[in-house]
Amino acid sequence: MTEISKDFNGQTVICTFEMTPATANELMDALKDAYDNCIRHQPGFIGAGLHMNDAQTRIANYSKWEHRDNYKAMLRTPEMIQRNRHIATLCRGFEPVMYEVMADF
């Protein structure tokens, strides 16, 4: 389980995906497969969660990494480049943003 803590010194990434209900399940399956078979095996990966809204129009992904460079290196692997090309066909767009935890409750 991924824990949220302001004492965390690594990199937090939140990525949102916009899609239609027609592609929601296929996109979720592609993301789960990416985590199961690629992302979680990358150096510096700590944990992640995938969330889908009730309308099946958005997926939010929360991930934690030891360092920002670990996340960036994962994105540059040939496998993730190929996977992200496929993921892009299933959604209107996606935006990963790096964050620092400022408070936890």
TrEMBL record:
Oxidoreductase listed as a keyword: yes
A Pfam family recorded for this sequence: ABM
Keywords: Monooxygenase, Oxidoreductase
Gene Ontology MF term list: monooxygenase activity
InterPro entries referenced in this protein's UniProt entry, alphabetically: ABM_dom (IPR007138), Dimeric_a/b-barrel (IPR011008)
PROSITE patterns given in the database record: ABM (PS51725)
Protein name per Swiss-Prot or TrEMBL: Antibiotic biosynthesis monooxygenase
Organism of origin: Pseudothioclava arenosa
